[in-house]
Amino acid sequence: FKDKVNTPYSASEPEKFLSARSLERRVKQKIDIVPEDLPVDPANVNLVKNAGAKTFFTSRWMNCLLVEADLATVQQIQLLPQVSKIVLAAPGEKLAGGRIKKIRKRTSPENSGATGVQLEQLGLDRMQDEGYHGENKFVAVFDSGFQGVDAATPFQSIFLDGRLKYSFDFVGNSGNVYQYDNHGTEVFSVIGAKVAGAFTGGAYGADFFLAVTEDASSEYRVEEYNWLFAAEKADSAGVDIISTSLGYNEFDDPSMNYTASSLDGKTAVITQAATMAMQKGMIVVCSAGNEGSNSWHFITAPADANGILSIGGVDSQGLRAPFSSVGPTADNRIKPDVMALGLGSAVVKPNGAIASDNGTSFACPLVASLAAGVWQAYPLLTSKEVYEAIVMSADQAHNPDNLKGYGLPNFGAIKNFLEASEINDIMTIHPNPVSNSTVSVTLKRPMDEPLTVTTYDRLGRILSESILTVTWQNNPFQISVEEMPAGMYFVKLKSQSISKVIKLIKV
Q: Does the pTM of the predicted model rise above 0.70?
């Protein structure tokens, strides 16, 4: 539609279309309610319906309406003065309501797998040991179906605790998300499933929102609009994090295809939607794509969006999986953003069995889990600050590339990054004075380069010297002072980027 001039909704009364939790998220991050947030004018929807179309979902952000209509009706709708344009999203009837569709056959190794590697690789095990399992964070998962989630034992605590807050099937316009496909089941399990001693999801204590947006049996632009509708519902419900293991570049109708030049962060419908979701204060995490070994090669939309976390896949040794899509974006930004285990990822099947599967689809929910735990541990951060902490503390943040982005993030490194940001000097030593055997040295910004650490007494005699590389993972690092008698000493740090001397008192 052209505008919202006559809408009955107002930015001064946002409680009429946004939940209290959604408003709280915006207030905390100082995000204003703008005309883009106002619902579509109901009168415009009625005009289209009266023209003979079947009307379905609306989008506040794009001021549009999804309809089913024949060609004659489309021509009538085009004559309405309120309509600015009409876009073909898919051919044929798509929204009959609750139909069961053929399940896409998927292949995956059936060997049993444990979650130890995928948790340890990102420090999710430490995060959980410190008491952060995603409690009170609201995580949405958009996928192609969640078969078995309502019945399989590894998911039952979510239902018993009342932590499934919302679910909807935008593909079939039904309330049943437990159909179609098992891809969403496996993806969701990486975050939310729990089997004592056998399988641990990354943020299994969170609240959840499940949406079917991907049509497993076909590929049309309507799926991008489904994602948009789901993202707006997530926004209004107060979701904190969206995890989406979906990507689009080629469609069953070639006229809808995207090209590499479309990956500019603003062209694809789903990329626009993901950007808007991020701007509303949500963290958006998506899979980078599995195109690295084929002719496309690059990431898929919405991984090109600026400010969302696009996730590539690595193996258990941290090496990039060959199938993991690469960057850059069309406007030459680094992508993917960070990496996680995508080769041999432990998942739960619809029947509750533990298996393994491959793809950036399973790397994505690991980073979404990390984001949930970080935000739980540091609740005063904004979504953008959580994004920055995850990216800028990753293990190749000082030398990012378009194969692995900024590298592997880690909960411990993120904590070090956030706590070091409070330091005013280049480095600090704690405790100082010191009475025990070691001191901790914290750099405000480790540069991932050789650092010479020299300890000497007040007469300038060198007592110890070592060369090490400091990253966010090992910042702060320890210096032994056990053999030093009480007195005044000096610690000198020197690298290409810094040169600093601090006085140290041993008591």
A: yes
